[in-house]
Design a protein that fits this description.
Shape: globular
Distance between the termini: 31 Å
CATH topology: Na+/H+ antiporter like fold
Radius of gyration: 21 Å
Number of helices: 17
Number of strands: 0
CATH architecture: Up-down Bundle
CATH class: Mainly Alpha
Order of helices and strands: HHHHHHHHHHHHHHHHH
Helix content: over 70%
Amino acid sequence: MTPFLQLAFTLAILLVTAKLAGYISIRLGQPSVLGELMVGILLGPSLLDFLSLPFLTDSVALEHFIVEMGEIGVLLLMFLAGLELHLDELRGNTKVAALAGVMGVIIPLVGGWGLGLVFGMETQSAIFLGLVMGATSVSISAQTLMEMKALKSRVGLGLLGAAVFDDVLVIFLLSMFFAFTSGASGLTETALVLARMLLFFALAFGFGLWVLPKMVRAVRNLPISQGVLTLTIVTLLGYGLVAELVGQMAAITGAFIAGLMFARTPEKEIIDPRISALAYGFFVPIFFVSIGLKTHLALHTEALGLAAGVIFVAIIAKWAGAAGGARLAGFNWRESIQLGMGMVSRGEVGLIVASAGTRNGLVTEAEFAAVVGMVIVTTLVTPPALRALFHLGEGASPTGTISHQAGGEKPQKGKNPHP
């Protein structure tokens, strides 16, 4: 079988199994993402090891290609999350976003630091473990909220804003940490990191507010097929690149801001269904399956105790920190608990931060295995827990509920909002 036929076969199997698992998950009252994550683990090296079939002769290249396409999927997903919102809606939730985002980093950082010291880790490694726990990835929570029509609820808006603050603070602290541990001038490196972040936000919002609308109007009038769609894809990829290269932030933050910028344009109604079809028909299912495909559940024996501690502290500290911040900002307890759970998933961001520590010799192989276990568990726990918390809160009060804030339509059981 030629390499292309191997790729075609692999993609066909992954897409069919992902959609089938998503359908079963919805029929069981859970978000489709849970089924897609589980089928990835089923097909991955932990169980069936699908990519090691005899006629798939280049499994390493296949896995690499699938993972990279999955990364495009998460960019599209976060772009759609931004496209659902408006700057004014986020601006009205700045206080809760700031408090929940900051406390959702500080509390897990302190908890991870203390846990590392308890397990005999060196101080630097223990602090880095705390930084890993401070990271969050709301792509999975955003998908779950979109399925429940709750992305524009008070909780959804606060969650997305808090994720931006979380990303900025984690990257800022991580950069300072590496600057101090490498012996560089801490003050100089700190100022440089802050300047690069501010430069990114200035470029992103300046381009999006003043240049992008004119470009969209110009391209719309050109006699080319799908010109606006192509401009949209190029822009969201460009925002992701600039976020990492200039701001040293996660590319998903850039994609989310790109979605916010396009949400201001009249072409939003044209862009939304086309990007949704591209994302949910191909790239997003591959992203969720790819998490399982590159995950090995077998942990080192010596890391089992640490893994249990890391998982427990990661869930409780992030949940309590973000929920506490939301409560201080004026959310009621139900909304605060919902927002806190939405911040629990570490996803690809947690793995990226942990990998940086491995490259710098701060995390041993056993400790990295414990972190991987934490990423898996938090990623799997978040969707069903978030859905359950929202269902418990339905009809309790008009603030932040699905029925009042998010469009008023409860999703029908068994119906996939993104077929």
